């Protein structure tokens, strides 16, 4: 049996580009996936997601970051510790770092790959993505497919 893999998108849909992780998961839900690939809209993160870090041995996390890069820039990294997360993920970054820290206290962390999309500003009460971030959504979906193929999860 193949180990299940979680694709977890986090972000706040009410704050414009900050919700890109959730938008990506919604786009991925429109595609066909093997039954061992699980998709989850993680919303704004939080401790309700803690059990997923013990339930899965592999997680691909998708989030926005305010890192000063050009808006829509896609980056990928593999954190080993909570401190490896970039200093400015979206508006929920403290909660996400706390979540990873708490998960590390309960047992070994799953193998994680984080895919980020650079955003410029938070826009409260904005439901749409900016054109540059919206254009990155299909590219992030393709990046996820590449990561899964690289790990021999997809042909």
TrEMBL record:
The keyword Cell cycle does not apply. It comes from the Bacteria. Belongs to the peptidase A31 family. PANTHER family: HYDROGENASE 1 MATURATION PROTEASE (PTHR30302), HYDROGENASE 2 MATURATION PROTEASE (PTHR30302:SF1). GO terms for biological process: protein processing. This is Hydrogenase maturation protease. The keyword Ribosomal protein does not apply. Pfam families: HycI. InterPro entries: Pept_HybD-like_dom_sf, Peptidase_A31. GO terms for molecular function: aspartic-type endopeptidase activity; enzyme activator activity. Keywords: Aspartyl protease, Hydrolase, Protease.
């Amino acid at each position: 049996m193949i180990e299940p893999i979680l694709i977890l998108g986090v972000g706040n849909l009410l704050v414009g580009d900050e919700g890109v992780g959730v938008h990506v998961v919604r786009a991925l839900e429109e595609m066909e996936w093997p039954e061992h690939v699980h998709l989850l809209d993680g919303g704004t993160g939080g401790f309700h997601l803690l059990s997923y870090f013990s339930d899965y041995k592999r997680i691909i996390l998708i989030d926005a970051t305010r890192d000063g890069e050009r808006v829509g820039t896609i980056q990928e990294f593999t954190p080993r510790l909570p401190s490896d997360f970039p200093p400015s993920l979206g508006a929920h970054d403290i909660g996400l770092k706390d979540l990873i820290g708490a998960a590390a206290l309960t047992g070994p962390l799953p193998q994680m790959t984080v895919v980020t999309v650079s955003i410029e500003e938070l826009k409260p009460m904005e439901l749409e993505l900016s054109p540059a971030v919206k254009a990155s959504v299909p590219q992030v979906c393709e990046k996820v497919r590449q990561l899964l193929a690289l790990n021999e999860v997809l042909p």
